Amino acid sequence: MIKRMNKVTSLLVAAAAVASIVPATAVSAADYKKTETKEGTIYSAVAYKDGKVYVDGNVKDGENDGAYYLSAGKYNDLSDIDSGATTEMFGDKYLNVDNGDYYMDLSTGKVEADDIEENSIDDVALALRKAIKNNADDRYSNHDVLHDDTNISEITVGPKFATTWYATTYTSKDTGSALNIYTDVKGNYIDADYNVGKIKVTIGQTTTAQSVTVENTKDAKDFKNNNGSAKVSIANAEIIAQDKNNIYRKTTYTVENAVTPITKINGVAVTGSAFTVETSGTGNKVNFTAIQKISKSQASDTVDGAKYAASVTNYVLADENGAKIDLLADAKFSAFGTKLVSYAVADEKVTAQTIDFKTTSGFNYIDPQDESTDEVATAFDVDANGNLWRLESGYIYKFDNNEDWVKTYKVDGSMDSINVYDDNNLVAWSKDNGNDDQVYTIVSGKDTTDTTTDTTNTDTTTDTTTTVKAGWNKNADGTWSFINNDQSKATGWVKDGATWYFLNNSGIMQTGWVKDGATWYYLNNSGAMQTGWVKDGSVWYYLNNSGAMQTGWFKDTDGNWYFLQDNGAMAANTTVGGYKLGANGAWIR
């Protein structure tokens, strides 16, 4: 079996170009493509980009079983690989054949005898030792240890054929506990147990309330008037997803103040069911579970010489009021920047659920959509972009990352297996149809034939869809839309490169202020989501790293305090809560 067949990703389809005009004919979600059925036997197959495919079966001459590499429409014999060999995906382009006997480069078809996987572990060990030894001797007691393949492991959740990241641990010099380290093969690592995101801890009630913000596990923040110190610890960290830029973990947070009881976390009362309060003496501990979105980029600073994540955002497994929300049982996850898609497959059925990340008044939480439950999946796969696919009764469906499955391809009804790289590169075949008439189809960008519209329950088709270039397209009225590879218009948030854009329900790119749920965002004239300070008219606003409009007290990177009103407008030349604010909005100390 293909070990990484169900791996997930957070990347949306990248824009191919900013080019052509959207035609007058609308692209309907009901449109699908009919594929060409070919006779032949496939036992297993792995689709790759640019129409390149690994095939184990009888597809070349109709007589002999074998392993083949399909490229540019030509089947090339892989003489070193026997039919029936086990294969597992590894890294950004390799197949591990028969537990490391060979590695096949899917980008070239070259078969190598070197153990690529073991060599990668060795490279990681050497790169980490070089990066950590003597640089982080105040952080780790074993900073000079050279790890090996017994304690360096591949992070196996995430998209197919993505740059491989690895996990290991080093020992804390302060506590003796194991600290989680995540790294690429070049040793660009992050200490994942230091930065925990912003945790605003409040004690007291309205008139006596005090708040401090804790951002890491090493430091404690003091309340005024000897009311104790807030500190944060984490435990039970479980990696559930990754994409190109982030690692996602489900983690238990413990926030503690030994002197005075904690009343709120990030502005939400700890009376909500998502929080567990442990009383001890005059203080307490508050426990909650959150999804951490951890940047793979290193912060510019270090902690005792060790590199840590540039940013971490924590999303409590709760609604905006702090009521607990449970995730789908036994689920796996795909990451898409502002959301996760959870899914569970059992007994040829799949249940999928989209989980949106939301922020309201500084509280980060999750907003699950309705489940798409018990959809028949004769075959199921997750592509290199993290999208879910299923095969049922002669149709291949793609999940829209919201609530619906979109009929994308029509194939022969006997087919019962699929392998998908992306919308334009996939293989479907009849692995066991009970007779000798086995068939298959390979979609490799230009291999699809009839474009059809599903208007009846028969196979009658009508060629009504005009193909539009995937990516940004300018409409006749001057507005812009983003066309997915399946020819549907994107709606909601779309990430192009490092920039986020928002498209309304009609697929039109928005500019200016946009409200998504209860949160406001600001998009410039080019549609790009803004972060940091933004001046709209004569008023200044601040958008956090997620683009959400900030309200209340806020401390910028220069250490200055500002107050942003409920509508986000920065207060200036006034006094708020006894604190005087200057003409530039900064608190005058």
UniProtKB/TrEMBL annotation:
InterPro entries xrefs: Cell_wall/Cho-bd_repeat
Extent of the Cell wall-binding repeats: 490-509, 510-529, 530-549, 550-570
Record's signal peptide: 1-29
Record Pfam families: Choline_bind_3 (PF19127)
Enzyme category, top tier: hydrolase
Annotated GO MF terms: N-acetylmuramoyl-L-alanine amidase activity
EC numbers for this chain: 3.5.1.28
Keyword list, A-Z: Hydrolase, Repeat, Signal
Protein name from the UniProt record: Autolysin
Organism in which the protein naturally occurs: Clostridium saccharobutylicum
